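User: I want to check something. If I give you two sequences, will you return the structure for each one separately, not as a complex?

Assistant: Yes, each is folded on its own. Here is the first sequence with its structure:
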Amino acid sequence: MYFNDQSIVFYNGKFIKAKDATANVYSQSLHYGNGVFEGIRAYNTENGAKIFKSFEHYKRLKHGAEVMNIQFNYTEDELTEITYELLKRNELKDAYIRPLITTGANMSLLTSTETNLMIQCWEWGKYMGDKLLRVKTSKFQRPNPNSCFVETKVTGHYVNSILSTNEAKAAGYDEALLLDMNGNVAECSGANVFMEKDGKLYTPPRGHIMAGITRATVLELCKEEGISVEEKHFTLEELKQADSCFFTGTAAEVVGLQSLDEYHFPLEWENSQGYKLMKLYKDEVLDVRKKAKAV
């Protein structure tokens, strides 16, 4: 699904076959989850492959390495150049890109001084598909921001996402919604959340959530299009009185919800602000909006 015998990855300064890449079985990332990753997309535009918001993604990757005390010296521009070359070598223009920083062999709980960088890419459709989602409120909470750096994509943090996703899938749902330590809505297992009420959008503020780049893009689109949006805390009970709801994320893009637990969102998806933003977001990543503004 992710690679074949011809797939190329970038690994510690070299482009090699994915099948030839190896990892140290004593890696601190493998044993303790001390690593950092990103999820990025490239889109096939009229001008060829375009990595969407590469600088912002690699800036977040570098910040994750910094807060986890992982030595990492690449610049955003260097990483972007490497990634375009990787796409070229894999003959991909529309792809999901996964940079991963891992740490070396170290069984202590002090960050290893050895750092490894791997960048992979593969063809991948929308992570959550195109149909409206049936979502279950998870018994698992979003991690307390005082316990870890919740705004960074640290590998070990995603055990929380795996637990909540497994729980939802086992109960027959498509996805999981997590609350924060105060009982407010936080996010999906792997995406941010927006709700619509009386034509206005609301989304949880930063602090307890992943600082989503797709989320930030949607906020920018709302400002440009005059769509009213407010960053505020809201409860599960408030969400279950909303007219509509949608998730945002690089892998998921923009995807609408059909229901949450027993509650069905009453507004037709095609009449919602989320549907409009789903279309606007697609135009944004394909450079259609930029072209329209230039005319």
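And separately, the second sequence with its own structure:
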Amino acid sequence: MKTLPGSIRRRINKNDEQISSAPGWMTTYSDLITQILIFFVLLFSFSSIDKSKFNAAMLSLQGSLGIIDGGMVIHEGDFIEGGEVEELLISAQEQQEFELLQEEVEEIVTEENLKGVQVNLDERGLVIRLIEGVLFDSGKADIKDEAKDILDKLAPLLKETHKHIRIEGHTDNLPIHTREFPSNWELSTARAVNVVKYMIEKHNFSPYILSAAGYGEYRPIAPNDSAKNRSLNRRVDIIILKSTSEASEPK
């Protein structure tokens, strides 16, 4: 076997040293740090993130990487599990989806000049509120013809969401005693059921994603101390439910 000259051996060894100057684990570590950075940039982009949970997620990450600030006392309850971090991210993504959905519904309401329709977001999901006079005559549960036009304009977007939708009927606290509706319970429930039936029969909604609830006078949004406030409480709410609310719905 021939021996390479010393000068050639020195050049080869020098090149090998240059090539292997960075340990292999540095590449993996750099990729990890980059992914972590992207992850938290995404979290920061969602304004609705629970600050305490986000801080807990940061604390958990810092602890796992061994970069907890000196002198900081860490308790077991300060950390959150990886599954909770994932749920936090999913919740933030869903919140953004619902905000975009709210904008789309508000655009329809504005463009179609839909009167008596309010749109807002709460912990349950997206609430499309229709006051009594929009859908029904006083003390009645039959959907008015002009109200059907409103439902027809909202139906395509509601159907595209593929989310569970709950129709809620509400009344004021003035008692009703008719042959058809002995109390506000029956009136509020009948109104919600009729909206559900219309969506299924006219727009082919899946019965599995729709539900009806009647709350009578017991979930007011304003004090029943004036005619104006009572009119606000006489309403039907169409609620596109978030996944956390869907979990409470019967399957």
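Because they were folded independently, the notes below concern the second chain alone. The chain has two domains: 6-91, 114-246. The radius of gyration is 30 Å.
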